[in-house]
Amino acid sequence: MTSSIDTLATGPMWAGFIAFVLAMLALDLFVLGGNKAHRVAPREAAGWALAWVALACGFGALLWWYLDGVAGREVANRKALEFFTGYLIEQALSVDNMFVFVMVFGYFAVPPPLQRRVLLYGVLGAIAMRAVMVLGGVWLVSEFAWVLYVFGLFLVVTGIKMLVLAERKPDLEHNPLLRWLRGHLRITPGFHGQAFFVRIGGVRHATPMLLVLLMIEASDLVFAVDSIPAIFAVTTDPFIVFTSNIFAVMGLRALYFLLADMAERFRLLKYGLALVLVCIGTKMLVAPWYHLPTHWSLAIVGAIILVSVVLSLKLPGTKPSTRAG
User: Fold this and answer.
1) How many CB atoms lie within 10 A of CB 76?
2) Mean pLDDT for the stretch of residues 27-48
3) Which DSSP string corresponds to 189-257?
4) What's the burial of 82, exposed, middle or buried (CB within 10 Å: 0-12/13-18/19+)?
5) DSSP-derived secondary structure for 79-105
6) Contacts of 208 (CB under 8 A, 6+ apart)
7) Alpha-carbon dihedral sign for residues 319, 175, 220, 25
8) pTM for the complete prediction?
9) Can you tell me the distance from the alpha carbon of 249 to that of 246, in angstroms, rounded to the nearest whole number?
10) DSSP SS3 for 321
């Protein structure tokens, strides 16, 4: 069983969006000093977080305006709603990355001025990985429609697993990737500024910065496996899937610097994210018998996230340990 790819995106639309992403990365790298050691202040992080939300909203509005002119109001409303719903889902699920960033940076004791560069390179890697995974996922869905049910079952199982293991802290000391890297690389005991590699006595050594970067990239790969199938519950349009993913990834770095110090206060958010996965997976599994409108998906996801955040701030809780191993 196969299904066609439903998209109205043209070549210029793809080129324009990719050019926009490259321009924003270049602005960060070469104008705003994203490749230099810099401690990000809360005000700066809040400004960037709001900027990325505003850009995502502006993109959604621009998409609606364009489609309203070329395809009609009904199509414009549907595609714009799919984008905003997908963006909310991807943004919500990407917050789970924030908890991992906090844990990794704490474990390696990464100085705050060095964290910005690691996350910038992490964003570059995440964009490349997600582009490949989005294209691969769209191809699978277009060739084998039943894959959507596999995605749905996977999301339900993953959400239940997250609910059960929400309070368990990963043990980085016994992480297989980290153990392999330590066993196969010469690693300096301390940081050497922002360098990923240094030469000591004519021998090339990796620095802890490289380990941090690889752990960040690995975590994004794991979370992409959850988040990308989730958006297929809303749309199979590759342009919507890709753009909503990229806006969420691009805004994640600012969100981390804004909320990292308060991460422990959002202790119930993991339960909310797990419920989001279960709900989205269930929606995909029951699709042959019941179609949940996209605006209801948006409302349910938004309500779950809002309730979990409010309860996290209102209900008292014990302070969890910050370092494993």
Assistant:
1) 19
2) 69
3) SS--TT-SEEEETTEEEE-HHHHHHHHHHHHHHHHHHHHHHHHTTT---HHHHHHHHHHHHHHHHHHHH
4) buried
5) HHHHHHHHHHHHHHHHHHHHHHHHHHH
6) 108, 110, 187, 188, 190, 191
7) positive
8) 0.80
9) 5
10) coil
Dump pLDDT digits (tens) for 302-317. Answer: 888 888 888 877 876 5
Helix axes 208-231, 176-184, angle to 10 degrees: 150
Question: What does each C-alpha distance from 85 to 26, 80, 134 come to in angstroms?
Answer: 28, 9, 17
Give the residue carrying structure tokens 């990737």.
177
Burial of 181 (0-12, 13-18, 19+ CB in 10 A): middle
Residue 184 CB coordination number (10 Å): 9
Beta pairing class for 203-206 and 197-200: antiparallel
The closest alpha carbon to 85, from 306, 307, 300, 304, belongs to: 300
For 251-266, the pLDDT digits (tens) are 887 877 777 666 667 7
Q: In sequence order, what are the residues at sequence separation of 6 or more whose Cβ sits closer than 8 angstroms to the Cβ of residue 265?
A: 312, 313
The token pair at 319 is 């302070």
| 169 Rama sector, left if φ>0, alpha if ψ -120 to 50, beta otherwise | beta
| Alpha helix segments (H runs only) across the chain | 11-26, 42-70, 73-108, 112-143, 147-164, 176-184, 208-231, 238-259, 269-285, 294-314
Q: Tokens 């996977």 map to which residue? A: 154
Please state which of the ranges 65-74, 151-160, 173-182 shows the lowest mean pLDDT. 173-182
- Please return the burial class of 201, using the count of CB atoms within 10 Å of its CB with bins 0-12, 13-18 and 19+: exposed
Q: Which residue has the tokens 């066609």?
A: 4
The dihedral region occupied by 53, where left means phi > 0, alpha psi between -120 and 50, and beta the remainder, is alpha
Question: Is residue 117 within 8 Å of residue 210, measured between CB atoms?
Answer: no
